[in-house]
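BACKBONE STRUCTURE TOKENS:
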Amino acid sequence: MPNQVYIGIGSNQGKKKENYLEALARIAKIPDTRIIKESSLYESEPLGESKEWYVNGVIEIETELKPDLLLKKCRNIERAMGRKKVRKRWGARIIDLDILLFDTLILGKRSLKIPHPEMHKRKFVLIPLSEIAPQVIHPLLGVTISELLVSVKNDKRVSLMRS
């Protein structure tokens, strides 16, 4: 039985929308994996020192891969697209792929934490995630994604991207 996984995608360098779409195409080519749903694209104000706004979205995939192997595939996509090792937290990046949820799994490894430990604080994650999965329950917090979105305390601007 395939795993239901939600992945956050973001880019704030170069041709951001094209980077996003390229990452989507590369994810679609991961063996034993298929994209089920895609959110709209959003522009979001950056965290930290970066001045460049992000293009963000979330996808739902089904995959036969285990979490560690999926993470490895995502990191390989990031590197293949030219992502360098990020020195600063929240620094600029050509592409960022984050596993947000993996079924109802709770994982606390150093290299991979599921659910994503910051997702419930980030409108740029919760808005697109609630678009495609409003009733999915956060496995640690026990509330739906739409409930998390209503209660998020974050003043960073997020808006639907115009074509």
Summary: The helical segments are 16-28, 67-80, 123-132, 145-151. The mean pLDDT is 93. The radius of gyration is 15 Å. The beta strands are 3-11, 33-38, 42-44, 54-63, 96-102, 107-108, 113-114, 158-160.
